[in-house]
Amino acid sequence: HWWKIAATVALLLAVGWWFRPDSNHYETAYGELQQIELPDGTKVDLRANSALWWDGDWAEQGTREVFLKGEAYFQVTSASSQNGMAFVVHAAPLDVRVLGTSFNLVNRTDNAALTLVEGKVAIEAGQQQKTIVQPHQQYTWHENAQNGQLQDVVSPERYASWRQSVWHFEQTPLRDIAQQLQDNYGKTVIFQDTQLAEKTLSGSAPAKT
């Protein structure tokens, strides 16, 4: 009787170990948002259909490094609390290096974009020279052009309005909105009239799932 109980407990422990969550890897489904706190205290809001991970144990010295596929909002803990360690987000082809800042980062569909809310970051992309991004600036990368562009933005917070379940558009082409619906909800929009795809939309709308 007792050995059967012991065997059952051992089996449950083995199954629990096999299906334990991977603390180094976070992933969201379509329509899902997830809030994460990294070991250094950095807070990350992970948008739908996205993944964030790092290799091995969390670095206690050298460089804090994470990898992003999709979209996330970072509130990075100051480097002073981690012995001056830099924080690097790898979002191929971009490598974003920060010491303590808040920003929204997109890495989807052959395009990447970083919108800086506060602090300062340095971006490396392919063979291009390092670009310094200041608050209220946005850096965009387009795979087809193989180059990055830096521009000023009036309200960088609106690019992270999805954190409050709000869609915000400002002269946004319908084709771009359709792409966002596919990226975040897995829904494909087909334009029978290709000219309609170029029409723009401005305004806000709830984004409840």
Characterize the structure shown.
This protein is mainly beta. The protein is 14% helix and 42% strand. It contains two helices and 15 strands. The strands form two sheets. Strands 1, 2, 3, 4, 5, 6, 7, 8, 9, 10, 11, 12 and 13 form a 13-stranded mixed β-sheet that branches. Strands 14-15 form a two-stranded antiparallel sheet. The longest helix has 17 residues, at 2-18. It starts with a helix and ends with a strand. Mean pLDDT is 86; it is low at 1-6 and 8-21.
Fold blueprint:
Blueprint: H1 2-18, E1 25-27, E2 34-37, E3 43-46, E4 51-53, E5 63-75, E6 86-91, E7 94-98, E8 102-108, E9 111-118, E10 121-125, E11 131-133, E12 137-142, E13 147-152, E14 166-173, H2 174-185, E15 200-206
Parallel strand pairs: 5-6
Antiparallel strand pairs: 1-4, 2-3, 3-5, 4-5, 5-8, 6-7, 7-10, 8-9, 9-12, 10-11, 12-13, 14-15
